[in-house]
Design brief:
CATH topology of the largest domain: Aminoglycoside 3'-phosphotransferase, Chain: A, domain 2
Distance between the termini: 41 Å
Number of domains: 2
Order of helices and strands: HEEEHEEHHHHEEEEHHHHHH
Number of strands: 9
Helix content: 40-55%
CATH superfamily of the largest domain: Aminoglycoside phosphotransferase (APH), C-terminal lobe
Structural class: alpha+beta
Number of helices: 12
Largest sheet: 5 strands, antiparallel
Length: 335
Amino acid sequence: MESLNELEPFLAEEIKSKFSIIKLAGDASDRSYYRIVTDKKNYVLCADKNIKSVNPKDSPYLIVYNIFRSYNIDIPLIYNLDYERGFILMEDLGRCHLVDFCGDLNGNEIIEVYKKVIDLLVGIQSIPEQEGTPFNRAFDAAKLNYEFDFFIEHTLIGYYKLNGDMDEIAELQEEFYSISEILFKPEFFVLNHRDYHSKNVLIFNNRPYIIDFQDARTGLPQYDPASLIRDPYFKLEDPLFKFLKEYYYSKARDVGIHSMKRDEFDFYFDVMAFQRNIKAAGSFGYLAVCKKLPRYKEFIIPALSYLGDYADRQSGLQKAFRILKKIIPGEPDFG
């Protein structure tokens, strides 16, 4: 955590008025956030040690920020960046995330909010390819395999302590690698946010804004919608899920993001969502064990709970799902 001796000189230079500093609850990253309160307006300050002494021209955060701004993607405005000290001073859009906003809404109200969030996603995926970051990063087979292995290491072995029958782990790994090969279809790739879920969308004045976009990369069009509507943090009832899946499919097809027929789109959605939920469960296991953040334990089973649905529809996922059901101990049926 940054000391006030580090923050106050920077803020005094930028704000030039009296202010108070409120430490905000952290997320799962190494970044720290503060609300800066003044008489006229509030700000959010992000302290990120990973950007210290980085050339702004090489900063993924700033590169993606500028691209998103140029294509009118709603994101918090940056007022100033100090790369030597690792500070980003930005617009304060409150702390109401999509998951919080939808908590007391009925089905029709949830649909209307999610349609706006999907419209933003369609805007991101419509950005034409350019040279360099983030278009030089992709969900290729190597990246997907890394995420599968991360799940094995940190959730199956690290969290569930499954280090006995390594033959079954190896068999599961083979199935995972086959799935990665299926998903490597660069001819279909578009830009994705990479972590497009209900905790990375802020609702401000009934309008969604996107945060934590610095890891954007190319991949199948299904990656981000699967992350959004098959979200461990906020589970949509089946009719809402089906409606929003259809809404994305039609809207993205109309603007040329994809040209898939429905069966093809559904196939890649299920396989991509299977991988994406495995990846999420891997992150939760890592955060719970390695980062000692026990609050993330509760999201592991919600992430895995979607897998049986995908496996029921896609035979190529059934073996991996059977192995997972067999080797994960002491949990209710997550299928």
